[in-house]
Structure to design on (509 residues):
Protein backbone atom coordinates (compact mmCIF):
# COMPACT_ATOMS: atom_id res chain seq x y z
CA UNK A 1 0.00 0.00 0.00
CA UNK A 2 1.51 3.36 -0.98
CA UNK A 3 1.80 6.30 1.41
CA UNK A 4 -1.13 8.22 -0.09
CA UNK A 5 -3.40 5.21 0.32
CA UNK A 6 -2.26 4.80 3.93
CA UNK A 7 -2.90 8.50 4.56
CA UNK A 8 -6.37 8.15 2.97
CA UNK A 9 -7.21 5.17 5.19
CA UNK A 10 -6.05 7.09 8.24
CA UNK A 11 -8.28 10.03 7.38
CA UNK A 12 -11.27 7.69 7.12
CA UNK A 13 -10.37 6.30 10.53
CA UNK A 14 -10.05 9.80 12.00
CA UNK A 15 -13.48 10.79 10.73
CA UNK A 16 -15.12 7.80 12.38
CA UNK A 17 -13.11 8.62 15.53
CA UNK A 18 -14.53 12.14 15.41
CA UNK A 19 -18.04 10.69 15.41
CA UNK A 20 -17.10 8.60 18.44
CA UNK A 21 -15.88 11.61 20.38
CA UNK A 22 -18.48 14.14 19.30
CA UNK A 23 -21.64 12.14 18.62
CA UNK A 24 -22.23 9.69 21.47
CA UNK A 25 -25.13 7.76 19.83
CA UNK A 26 -22.77 6.90 16.98
CA UNK A 27 -20.26 5.00 19.14
CA UNK A 28 -21.57 1.57 18.18
CA UNK A 29 -21.30 2.55 14.53
CA UNK A 30 -17.77 3.80 15.22
CA UNK A 31 -16.71 0.46 16.67
CA UNK A 32 -18.16 -1.49 13.75
CA UNK A 33 -16.72 0.81 11.07
CA UNK A 34 -13.27 0.79 12.67
CA UNK A 35 -13.33 -3.00 12.89
CA UNK A 36 -14.13 -3.23 9.18
CA UNK A 37 -11.48 -0.68 8.30
CA UNK A 38 -8.77 -2.28 10.39
CA UNK A 39 -9.57 -5.75 9.11
CA UNK A 40 -8.52 -4.76 5.62
CA UNK A 41 -5.62 -2.39 6.01
CA UNK A 42 -2.96 -1.00 8.29
CA UNK A 43 -3.75 2.49 9.53
CA UNK A 44 -0.77 4.71 10.18
CA UNK A 45 0.72 8.05 9.22
CA UNK A 46 1.79 8.77 5.70
CA UNK A 47 5.54 8.28 5.48
CA UNK A 48 7.36 11.61 5.08
CA UNK A 49 10.02 12.15 2.49
CA UNK A 50 13.21 10.37 3.42
CA UNK A 51 15.22 13.58 3.32
CA UNK A 52 12.92 15.61 5.52
CA UNK A 53 14.24 16.61 8.93
CA UNK A 54 11.07 18.48 9.87
CA UNK A 55 8.45 15.79 9.44
CA UNK A 56 5.46 16.19 11.75
CA UNK A 57 5.09 14.11 14.88
CA UNK A 58 2.81 11.10 14.82
CA UNK A 59 0.20 13.13 16.69
CA UNK A 60 0.62 16.23 14.57
CA UNK A 61 -2.60 15.89 12.56
CA UNK A 62 -5.46 17.53 14.34
CA UNK A 63 -9.14 18.29 13.92
CA UNK A 64 -10.22 21.88 13.76
CA UNK A 65 -12.81 23.56 15.92
CA UNK A 66 -12.97 24.92 13.20
CA UNK A 67 -1.62 40.56 -2.65
CA UNK A 68 -2.04 42.97 0.11
CA UNK A 69 -0.71 44.70 -1.79
CA UNK A 70 1.43 47.44 -2.21
CA UNK A 71 -1.03 49.23 -4.50
CA UNK A 72 -4.43 50.33 -3.31
CA UNK A 73 -6.13 48.22 -5.95
CA UNK A 74 -4.26 45.13 -4.79
CA UNK A 75 -6.25 41.98 -4.95
CA UNK A 76 -7.15 39.41 -2.38
CA UNK A 77 -4.62 36.99 -1.05
CA UNK A 78 -5.90 34.32 -3.38
CA UNK A 79 -5.01 35.80 -6.72
CA UNK A 80 -2.04 38.04 -7.33
CA UNK A 81 1.36 38.88 -5.97
CA UNK A 82 1.52 41.98 -3.79
CA UNK A 83 3.03 45.34 -4.13
CA UNK A 84 3.21 47.77 -1.27
CA UNK A 85 0.21 49.94 -0.41
CA UNK A 86 2.37 53.00 -0.87
CA UNK A 87 5.69 52.53 -2.60
CA UNK A 88 7.67 55.11 -0.73
CA UNK A 89 10.56 52.90 0.29
CA UNK A 90 13.04 52.04 -2.39
CA UNK A 91 15.97 49.84 -3.19
CA UNK A 92 15.99 47.43 -0.26
CA UNK A 93 14.72 43.95 0.34
CA UNK A 94 15.64 44.15 3.99
CA UNK A 95 13.15 45.42 6.48
CA UNK A 96 15.92 47.10 8.39
CA UNK A 97 16.73 49.57 5.61
CA UNK A 98 17.41 52.90 7.24
CA UNK A 99 16.23 54.77 4.16
CA UNK A 100 12.76 53.21 4.20
CA UNK A 101 9.67 55.25 4.92
CA UNK A 102 6.87 53.62 6.90
CA UNK A 103 3.76 54.76 5.05
CA UNK A 104 1.49 51.80 5.63
CA UNK A 105 3.05 50.49 8.81
CA UNK A 106 3.54 52.09 12.20
CA UNK A 107 3.83 55.86 12.22
CA UNK A 108 6.91 57.36 13.83
CA UNK A 109 4.76 58.41 16.76
CA UNK A 110 3.76 55.50 18.97
CA UNK A 111 0.11 54.53 18.81
CA UNK A 112 0.47 52.99 22.23
CA UNK A 113 1.42 54.64 25.47
CA UNK A 114 5.02 54.34 26.58
CA UNK A 115 3.78 52.10 29.34
CA UNK A 116 2.60 49.60 26.73
CA UNK A 117 5.70 49.85 24.52
CA UNK A 118 7.46 47.08 26.42
CA UNK A 119 7.73 43.33 26.43
CA UNK A 120 4.17 42.08 26.17
CA UNK A 121 3.18 39.21 28.43
CA UNK A 122 -0.21 37.61 28.01
CA UNK A 123 0.40 34.86 30.56
CA UNK A 124 0.16 35.40 34.29
CA UNK A 125 3.86 34.72 34.88
CA UNK A 126 6.74 34.58 32.50
CA UNK A 127 10.18 33.08 32.29
CA UNK A 128 12.58 31.75 29.72
CA UNK A 129 16.18 32.65 29.19
CA UNK A 130 16.75 32.86 25.46
CA UNK A 131 15.20 34.26 22.32
CA UNK A 132 13.95 30.90 21.11
CA UNK A 133 12.19 29.69 24.23
CA UNK A 134 9.58 31.10 26.55
CA UNK A 135 7.97 29.80 29.70
CA UNK A 136 4.68 30.72 31.28
CA UNK A 137 2.96 29.35 34.34
CA UNK A 138 -0.68 29.20 35.17
CA UNK A 139 -1.30 27.95 38.69
CA UNK A 140 0.87 24.85 39.05
CA UNK A 141 1.08 23.97 35.36
CA UNK A 142 4.15 25.08 33.43
CA UNK A 143 4.04 25.65 29.72
CA UNK A 144 7.34 25.70 27.90
CA UNK A 145 7.63 26.24 24.20
CA UNK A 146 10.31 26.85 21.63
CA UNK A 147 10.26 27.55 17.92
CA UNK A 148 11.37 25.17 15.24
CA UNK A 149 11.07 26.32 11.63
CA UNK A 150 8.47 28.84 12.72
CA UNK A 151 6.41 26.32 14.68
CA UNK A 152 5.89 26.17 18.39
CA UNK A 153 6.85 22.94 20.06
CA UNK A 154 7.47 21.68 23.53
CA UNK A 155 5.46 20.86 26.63
CA UNK A 156 2.09 22.52 26.17
CA UNK A 157 -1.19 21.48 27.76
CA UNK A 158 -4.35 22.42 25.91
CA UNK A 159 -6.80 23.82 28.44
CA UNK A 160 -9.61 21.52 29.53
CA UNK A 161 -11.87 24.54 29.80
CA UNK A 162 -11.68 28.21 28.95
CA UNK A 163 -10.10 29.30 32.24
CA UNK A 164 -6.55 29.69 30.97
CA UNK A 165 -7.67 31.43 27.79
CA UNK A 166 -9.86 33.82 29.76
CA UNK A 167 -6.98 34.57 32.12
CA UNK A 168 -4.76 35.33 29.15
CA UNK A 169 -7.36 37.65 27.66
CA UNK A 170 -7.82 39.39 31.01
CA UNK A 171 -4.09 40.12 31.14
CA UNK A 172 -4.09 41.86 27.76
CA UNK A 173 -4.34 45.61 27.24
CA UNK A 174 -6.92 47.10 24.90
CA UNK A 175 -4.11 47.76 22.43
CA UNK A 176 -3.03 44.15 22.46
CA UNK A 177 -6.61 42.93 22.08
CA UNK A 178 -7.14 45.20 19.07
CA UNK A 179 -3.93 44.02 17.41
CA UNK A 180 -4.91 40.36 17.82
CA UNK A 181 -7.85 40.92 15.47
CA UNK A 182 -5.59 41.54 12.44
CA UNK A 183 -3.61 39.51 9.94
CA UNK A 184 -1.52 41.80 7.73
CA UNK A 185 1.49 41.70 5.44
CA UNK A 186 5.00 42.38 6.76
CA UNK A 187 5.04 45.44 4.49
CA UNK A 188 1.92 46.86 6.15
CA UNK A 189 3.49 46.16 9.53
CA UNK A 190 6.81 47.86 8.82
CA UNK A 191 6.08 50.29 6.00
CA UNK A 192 8.98 48.77 4.03
CA UNK A 193 8.71 48.22 0.28
CA UNK A 194 9.40 44.47 0.30
CA UNK A 195 10.26 42.35 3.34
CA UNK A 196 12.48 39.28 2.92
CA UNK A 197 13.93 38.94 6.41
CA UNK A 198 12.97 39.49 10.03
CA UNK A 199 15.17 42.31 11.24
CA UNK A 200 15.07 44.97 13.90
CA UNK A 201 12.36 46.94 12.13
CA UNK A 202 9.98 43.97 12.08
CA UNK A 203 10.70 43.23 15.72
CA UNK A 204 10.06 46.81 16.77
CA UNK A 205 6.80 46.86 14.81
CA UNK A 206 5.66 43.55 16.36
CA UNK A 207 6.34 45.01 19.80
CA UNK A 208 4.17 48.00 19.00
CA UNK A 209 1.55 46.05 17.06
CA UNK A 210 1.37 42.43 18.33
CA UNK A 211 -0.84 41.34 15.45
CA UNK A 212 -2.34 37.86 15.26
CA UNK A 213 -0.58 36.92 12.07
CA UNK A 214 1.39 37.81 8.97
CA UNK A 215 0.60 36.80 5.41
CA UNK A 216 3.39 36.37 2.87
CA UNK A 217 3.35 36.55 -0.92
CA UNK A 218 5.63 35.47 -3.74
CA UNK A 219 7.83 38.56 -3.51
CA UNK A 220 8.63 37.74 0.12
CA UNK A 221 9.76 34.21 -0.70
CA UNK A 222 13.14 33.92 -2.43
CA UNK A 223 14.71 30.62 -1.36
CA UNK A 224 13.89 27.87 1.14
CA UNK A 225 16.67 28.95 3.52
CA UNK A 226 15.72 32.63 3.39
CA UNK A 227 12.03 31.80 3.95
CA UNK A 228 12.77 29.53 6.90
CA UNK A 229 14.96 32.17 8.53
CA UNK A 230 12.38 34.91 7.97
CA UNK A 231 9.46 32.92 9.38
CA UNK A 232 11.40 31.42 12.27
CA UNK A 233 12.72 34.86 13.20
CA UNK A 234 9.24 36.38 13.33
CA UNK A 235 7.79 33.45 15.24
CA UNK A 236 10.64 33.28 17.77
CA UNK A 237 10.38 36.98 18.51
CA UNK A 238 6.59 36.86 18.92
CA UNK A 239 6.78 33.90 21.29
CA UNK A 240 9.47 35.65 23.31
CA UNK A 241 7.37 38.80 23.61
CA UNK A 242 3.81 37.51 23.97
CA UNK A 243 3.89 33.76 24.68
CA UNK A 244 1.53 33.39 21.72
CA UNK A 245 2.42 32.22 18.22
CA UNK A 246 1.79 34.12 15.02
CA UNK A 247 -0.42 32.76 12.31
CA UNK A 248 2.18 32.52 9.50
CA UNK A 249 -0.03 32.54 6.44
CA UNK A 250 0.19 31.98 2.69
CA UNK A 251 -2.17 31.30 -0.21
CA UNK A 252 -1.14 27.92 -1.59
CA UNK A 253 -4.07 26.25 -3.32
CA UNK A 254 -2.14 24.60 -6.12
CA UNK A 255 -2.69 25.48 -9.76
CA UNK A 256 -2.49 29.21 -10.47
CA UNK A 257 -2.51 30.18 -6.80
CA UNK A 258 0.85 28.86 -5.63
CA UNK A 259 3.16 31.42 -4.03
CA UNK A 260 5.77 28.79 -3.20
CA UNK A 261 5.42 26.16 -5.91
CA UNK A 262 5.57 28.72 -8.73
CA UNK A 263 9.12 29.63 -7.67
CA UNK A 264 11.64 27.14 -9.15
CA UNK A 265 14.05 27.93 -6.31
CA UNK A 266 11.89 25.90 -3.93
CA UNK A 267 11.95 22.73 -6.04
CA UNK A 268 8.49 21.55 -4.96
CA UNK A 269 5.64 20.02 -6.93
CA UNK A 270 2.58 22.04 -7.87
CA UNK A 271 -0.28 19.51 -7.63
CA UNK A 272 -2.29 21.46 -10.18
CA UNK A 273 -5.68 23.19 -10.11
CA UNK A 274 -8.46 21.87 -7.91
CA UNK A 275 -10.78 21.27 -10.86
CA UNK A 276 -8.40 18.60 -12.21
CA UNK A 277 -8.04 16.58 -9.00
CA UNK A 278 -11.28 14.69 -9.48
CA UNK A 279 -11.10 12.06 -6.71
CA UNK A 280 -10.85 12.12 -2.92
CA UNK A 281 -7.49 10.34 -3.11
CA UNK A 282 -6.06 12.97 -5.47
CA UNK A 283 -7.41 15.81 -3.33
CA UNK A 284 -5.85 14.25 -0.24
CA UNK A 285 -2.52 13.78 -2.04
CA UNK A 286 -2.58 17.44 -3.17
CA UNK A 287 -3.18 18.68 0.36
CA UNK A 288 -0.51 16.31 1.68
CA UNK A 289 2.03 17.56 -0.87
CA UNK A 290 1.35 21.23 -0.12
CA UNK A 291 1.19 20.67 3.62
CA UNK A 292 4.54 18.90 3.60
CA UNK A 293 6.51 21.73 2.01
CA UNK A 294 4.66 24.48 3.88
CA UNK A 295 5.47 22.77 7.18
CA UNK A 296 9.10 22.38 6.18
CA UNK A 297 9.34 26.12 5.43
CA UNK A 298 7.72 27.16 8.71
CA UNK A 299 4.21 28.20 7.64
CA UNK A 300 1.35 27.13 9.88
CA UNK A 301 -1.69 28.52 8.01
CA UNK A 302 -2.81 28.03 4.41
CA UNK A 303 -5.73 30.08 3.11
CA UNK A 304 -7.00 27.02 1.26
CA UNK A 305 -8.93 25.09 0.05
CA UNK A 306 -11.20 27.14 -2.20
CA UNK A 307 -14.68 25.85 -1.42
CA UNK A 308 -16.54 27.90 -4.02
CA UNK A 309 -19.00 25.89 -6.13
CA UNK A 310 -18.52 26.88 -9.76
CA UNK A 311 -22.15 27.31 -10.80
CA UNK A 312 -21.37 30.02 -13.36
CA UNK A 313 -19.07 28.71 -16.12
CA UNK A 314 -18.26 32.31 -17.12
CA UNK A 315 -16.71 32.96 -13.71
CA UNK A 316 -12.99 33.44 -14.33
CA UNK A 317 -11.91 34.81 -10.95
CA UNK A 318 -12.64 31.38 -9.43
CA UNK A 319 -12.61 29.13 -12.49
CA UNK A 320 -10.34 26.12 -12.06
CA UNK A 321 -9.62 27.00 -8.44
CA UNK A 322 -12.95 25.31 -7.63
CA UNK A 323 -13.25 21.54 -7.16
CA UNK A 324 -16.39 21.47 -9.32
CA UNK A 325 -19.93 22.66 -10.04
CA UNK A 326 -21.70 20.46 -7.49
CA UNK A 327 -21.82 21.26 -3.79
CA UNK A 328 -21.39 17.67 -2.62
CA UNK A 329 -18.36 17.13 -4.86
CA UNK A 330 -16.73 20.33 -3.65
CA UNK A 331 -17.49 19.44 -0.03
CA UNK A 332 -15.94 15.97 -0.31
CA UNK A 333 -12.81 16.98 -2.23
CA UNK A 334 -12.18 20.12 -0.17
CA UNK A 335 -12.50 18.05 2.99
CA UNK A 336 -9.88 15.57 1.79
CA UNK A 337 -7.56 18.40 0.70
CA UNK A 338 -7.89 19.89 4.19
CA UNK A 339 -7.14 16.49 5.72
CA UNK A 340 -3.90 16.43 3.75
CA UNK A 341 -2.91 19.84 5.11
CA UNK A 342 -3.77 18.79 8.64
CA UNK A 343 -1.46 15.79 8.35
CA UNK A 344 1.33 18.39 8.54
CA UNK A 345 -0.21 20.66 11.19
CA UNK A 346 -1.20 23.31 8.65
CA UNK A 347 -4.33 25.25 9.58
CA UNK A 348 -6.97 25.49 6.85
CA UNK A 349 -9.37 28.14 5.60
CA UNK A 350 -12.56 27.48 3.62
CA UNK A 351 -13.36 30.36 1.27
CA UNK A 352 -15.20 32.48 0.03
CA UNK A 353 -18.40 32.27 2.08
CA UNK A 354 -21.26 32.28 1.13
CA UNK A 355 -19.95 31.41 -2.34
CA UNK A 356 -18.08 33.23 -5.11
CA UNK A 357 -18.79 30.66 -7.83
CA UNK A 358 -21.92 32.28 -9.22
CA UNK A 359 -20.51 35.76 -9.80
CA UNK A 360 -19.11 37.17 -13.03
CA UNK A 361 -17.48 40.32 -11.68
CA UNK A 362 -14.30 40.32 -9.60
CA UNK A 363 -14.58 41.72 -6.05
CA UNK A 364 -10.94 42.77 -6.29
CA UNK A 365 -11.86 45.57 -8.64
CA UNK A 366 -15.48 46.30 -7.72
CA UNK A 367 -18.82 44.88 -6.67
CA UNK A 368 -19.31 41.17 -7.36
CA UNK A 369 -22.99 40.20 -7.36
CA UNK A 370 -24.74 36.86 -6.98
CA UNK A 371 -28.37 36.94 -8.01
CA UNK A 372 -29.30 33.80 -6.10
CA UNK A 373 -31.92 33.63 -3.38
CA UNK A 374 -31.19 31.98 -0.05
CA UNK A 375 -32.90 28.70 -0.95
CA UNK A 376 -30.58 28.35 -3.96
CA UNK A 377 -27.52 28.98 -1.82
CA UNK A 378 -28.60 26.19 0.53
CA UNK A 379 -28.88 23.80 -2.41
CA UNK A 380 -25.32 24.27 -3.66
CA UNK A 381 -23.05 27.09 -2.46
CA UNK A 382 -23.50 26.42 1.26
CA UNK A 383 -23.09 22.64 1.03
CA UNK A 384 -19.29 22.62 1.63
CA UNK A 385 -19.86 24.59 4.84
CA UNK A 386 -22.66 22.58 6.42
CA UNK A 387 -21.07 19.30 5.26
CA UNK A 388 -17.96 20.15 7.28
CA UNK A 389 -19.24 17.84 10.02
CA UNK A 390 -15.77 16.70 11.13
CA UNK A 391 -14.50 20.23 11.63
CA UNK A 392 -11.88 20.70 8.93
CA UNK A 393 -12.19 24.48 8.64
CA UNK A 394 -9.99 26.26 11.17
CA UNK A 395 -10.95 29.54 9.48
CA UNK A 396 -13.79 30.48 7.17
CA UNK A 397 -13.12 33.47 4.94
CA UNK A 398 -16.11 35.63 4.04
CA UNK A 399 -16.06 37.10 0.54
CA UNK A 400 -17.06 40.61 -0.49
CA UNK A 401 -20.02 39.25 -2.49
CA UNK A 402 -23.23 41.22 -2.79
CA UNK A 403 -26.50 39.28 -2.49
CA UNK A 404 -29.31 41.67 -3.40
CA UNK A 405 -31.93 38.89 -3.50
CA UNK A 406 -31.01 37.88 0.04
CA UNK A 407 -30.22 41.24 1.66
CA UNK A 408 -32.28 43.58 -0.55
CA UNK A 409 -29.21 45.76 -1.14
CA UNK A 410 -25.61 45.45 -2.33
CA UNK A 411 -23.91 45.33 1.07
CA UNK A 412 -20.85 43.05 0.78
CA UNK A 413 -21.37 39.79 2.67
CA UNK A 414 -18.31 40.63 4.79
CA UNK A 415 -20.12 43.60 6.31
CA UNK A 416 -23.54 41.97 6.70
CA UNK A 417 -24.62 40.78 10.14
CA UNK A 418 -27.35 38.76 8.44
CA UNK A 419 -24.78 36.77 6.49
CA UNK A 420 -21.86 36.52 8.93
CA UNK A 421 -23.47 36.25 12.36
CA UNK A 422 -26.93 35.14 11.27
CA UNK A 423 -26.22 32.59 8.55
CA UNK A 424 -22.66 31.40 9.22
CA UNK A 425 -22.38 31.63 13.00
CA UNK A 426 -25.94 30.91 14.10
CA UNK A 427 -27.70 28.90 11.38
CA UNK A 428 -24.69 26.86 10.29
CA UNK A 429 -23.34 26.79 13.85
CA UNK A 430 -19.74 27.47 12.87
CA UNK A 431 -17.56 27.83 15.97
CA UNK A 432 -14.17 28.59 14.44
CA UNK A 433 -12.51 31.81 13.31
CA UNK A 434 -14.38 33.93 10.78
CA UNK A 435 -12.00 36.14 8.81
CA UNK A 436 -12.65 38.70 6.11
CA UNK A 437 -11.25 38.47 2.62
CA UNK A 438 -8.59 41.07 1.85
CA UNK A 439 -9.96 44.46 2.83
CA UNK A 440 -7.93 46.13 0.06
CA UNK A 441 -10.37 45.03 -2.63
CA UNK A 442 -12.37 47.50 -4.63
CA UNK A 443 -15.66 46.07 -3.33
CA UNK A 444 -14.63 47.55 0.05
CA UNK A 445 -12.31 50.46 -0.68
CA UNK A 446 -14.68 52.02 -3.25
CA UNK A 447 -17.26 52.58 -0.52
CA UNK A 448 -15.59 52.62 2.91
CA UNK A 449 -12.41 53.87 4.51
CA UNK A 450 -10.25 51.38 6.40
CA UNK A 451 -11.51 52.25 9.86
CA UNK A 452 -15.16 52.08 8.82
CA UNK A 453 -14.72 48.79 6.98
CA UNK A 454 -12.85 47.10 9.83
CA UNK A 455 -15.47 48.12 12.40
CA UNK A 456 -18.40 47.13 10.17
CA UNK A 457 -16.85 43.71 9.50
CA UNK A 458 -16.29 43.07 13.19
CA UNK A 459 -19.80 44.22 14.06
CA UNK A 460 -21.17 41.92 11.36
CA UNK A 461 -19.61 38.97 13.18
CA UNK A 462 -16.13 38.57 11.71
CA UNK A 463 -13.44 37.71 14.25
CA UNK A 464 -10.45 38.87 12.21
CA UNK A 465 -9.65 41.54 9.64
CA UNK A 466 -7.37 40.56 6.77
CA UNK A 467 -5.08 43.11 5.14
CA UNK A 468 -6.83 46.47 5.51
CA UNK A 469 -5.69 49.06 2.99
CA UNK A 470 -4.53 51.37 5.80
CA UNK A 471 -3.61 49.16 8.76
CA UNK A 472 -2.87 51.93 11.31
CA UNK A 473 -6.23 53.57 10.55
CA UNK A 474 -8.09 50.26 10.81
CA UNK A 475 -6.30 49.42 14.04
CA UNK A 476 -7.08 52.83 15.54
CA UNK A 477 -10.73 52.48 14.51
CA UNK A 478 -11.06 49.13 16.27
CA UNK A 479 -9.13 50.36 19.32
CA UNK A 480 -11.36 53.43 19.68
CA UNK A 481 -14.46 51.23 19.42
CA UNK A 482 -13.10 48.97 22.17
CA UNK A 483 -12.32 51.89 24.46
CA UNK A 484 -15.64 53.70 24.01
CA UNK A 485 -17.78 50.56 24.27
CA UNK A 486 -18.96 50.50 20.66
CA UNK A 487 -17.53 46.98 20.64
CA UNK A 488 -18.97 45.35 23.78
CA UNK A 489 -16.52 43.52 26.03
CA UNK A 490 -18.40 40.23 25.67
CA UNK A 491 -18.34 40.39 21.88
CA UNK A 492 -14.61 41.21 21.80
CA UNK A 493 -13.71 38.43 24.22
CA UNK A 494 -15.75 35.88 22.27
CA UNK A 495 -13.61 36.56 19.19
CA UNK A 496 -10.39 36.51 21.18
CA UNK A 497 -11.38 33.16 22.72
CA UNK A 498 -11.84 31.66 19.27
CA UNK A 499 -8.52 33.06 18.07
CA UNK A 500 -6.55 31.88 21.10
CA UNK A 501 -8.16 28.46 21.05
CA UNK A 502 -6.82 27.89 17.54
CA UNK A 503 -3.44 29.28 18.58
CA UNK A 504 -3.31 26.62 21.28
CA UNK A 505 -3.38 24.05 18.48
CA UNK A 506 -0.23 25.52 17.00
CA UNK A 507 1.40 25.19 20.40
CA UNK A 508 0.74 21.47 20.67
CA UNK A 509 3.86 19.27 20.40
Amino acid sequence: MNSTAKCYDECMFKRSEYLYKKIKPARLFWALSCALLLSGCTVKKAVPDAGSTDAPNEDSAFSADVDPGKASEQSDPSDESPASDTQSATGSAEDGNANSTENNGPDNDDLMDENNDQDIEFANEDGGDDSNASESKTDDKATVYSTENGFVSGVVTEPDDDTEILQMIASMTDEQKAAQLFIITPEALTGVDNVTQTGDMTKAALTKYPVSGLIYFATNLETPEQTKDMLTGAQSYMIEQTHLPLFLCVDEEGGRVARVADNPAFGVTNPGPAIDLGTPQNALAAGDTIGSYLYDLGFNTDFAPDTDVLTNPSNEVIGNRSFGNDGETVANLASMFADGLHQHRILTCYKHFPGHGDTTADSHTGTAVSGKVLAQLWENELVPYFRDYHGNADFIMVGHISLPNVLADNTPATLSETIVDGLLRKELGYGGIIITDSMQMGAITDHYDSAQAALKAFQAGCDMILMPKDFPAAYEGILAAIKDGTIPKERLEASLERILRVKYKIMQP
Summary: The chain has two domains: 3-40, 166-506. Residues 3-40 form one domain. The chain is about 35% helix and 10% strand. Residues 3-22 form the longest helix (20 residues).
